[in-house]
Amino acid sequence: MPRIAGVDIPKNKQIWVALQYIYGIGSELSRRILAQTGISADTRADSLTEDEVNRLREVIDREYKVEGDLRKEVNFNIKRLIEIGSYRGLRHRHSLPVRGQRTRTNARARRGTKKTVAGRGKKRGMTKK
């Protein structure tokens, strides 16, 4: 099981898929990295030679921000937005959707489970129309 950028990539998958287990590398970036290193995308991760693994490590470390550095940068960006008091920062602070999604309905994943509020729902004694 090759270890690249501090992550054990799965050995039974094609290398273009296995590289996506590294935070910050998606399908397009993994294919671009493989093109730079001259490794076939269909190669299985366990059949890579030491030389190929070293080339992958070198390219990823030299040219791309991945894993811990990228996570740190994203967290600093969010903290900066919160500190300057921007609208996006306020949305982050209150754990609400940041990119303009509606919250009257949906947004359950971001807001958490329902909280029951008094006075909502069907009123007593109301008749059907």
Q: Total number of helical segments?
A: 6
How large, in whole angstroms, is the Cα Rg?
Answer: 23 Å
Helix and strand sequence: EEHHHHHH
Terminal residue distance: 68 Å
Q: Find the count of extended strands (DSSP E, 2+ residues).
A: 2
The CATH top-level class label of the largest domain: Mainly Alpha
Secondary-structure class: mainly alpha
> Could you say how many structural domains there are in total?
2
Second-tier CATH architecture of the largest domain:
Orthogonal Bundle
**Coarse morphology:** elongated
Q: Major sheet, described briefly?
A: 2 strands, antiparallel
Q: pLDDT average, as an integer? A: 89
Point out poorly predicted stretches.
Answer: none
Residue share in helix: 40-55%
Beta fraction of the residues? under 5%
The CATH topology of the largest domain is Helicase, Ruva Protein, domain 3
Task: List the quaternary state of the chains.
Answer: single chain
Strand order of the largest sheet: 1-2
